[in-house]
């Protein structure tokens, strides 16, 4: 299961993403974060299905521009 998250390049975004996922009992299997200037894209592979509640919580984080869930 994979999440693609576009956000501003802020120092606390990754910590907040991890906190939301951990709160749902999801473990991060792989994480890639690339940034250019003020924008950042993060790909997160997690160890289980991501509930809509978690997706909504991720999208509500200040600085997150878009969240896509890819149930691969």
Structural features, described:
It is a single chain. The chain is α+β, with helices and mostly antiparallel strands. It has 2 helices and 4 strands; from the N terminus they run E-H-E-E-H-E. A 4-stranded antiparallel beta sheet has the order 2-3-1-4, with helices on one face. The model has no long low-confidence stretch (mean pLDDT 95).
| Number of separate strands | 4
Portion of residues in beta strands equals: 35-45%
Which class of secondary structure composition applies to the elements?
alpha+beta
Regions with pLDDT < 50 over 5+ consecutive residues?
A: none
Largest sheet: 4 strands, antiparallel
Reconstruct the topology from this structure.
Blueprint: E1 2-8, H1 13-23, E2 28-36, E3 39-46, H2 52-59, E4 64-70
Antiparallel strand pairs: 1-3, 1-4, 2-3
What's this, in brief?
With 72 residues, the protein is an alpha+beta fold. The protein contains 2 helices and 4 strands, in the order βαββαβ.
Keyword list:
43% strand; 72 residues; single chain; 26% helix; 2 helices; 4-stranded antiparallel sheet; alpha+beta; globular
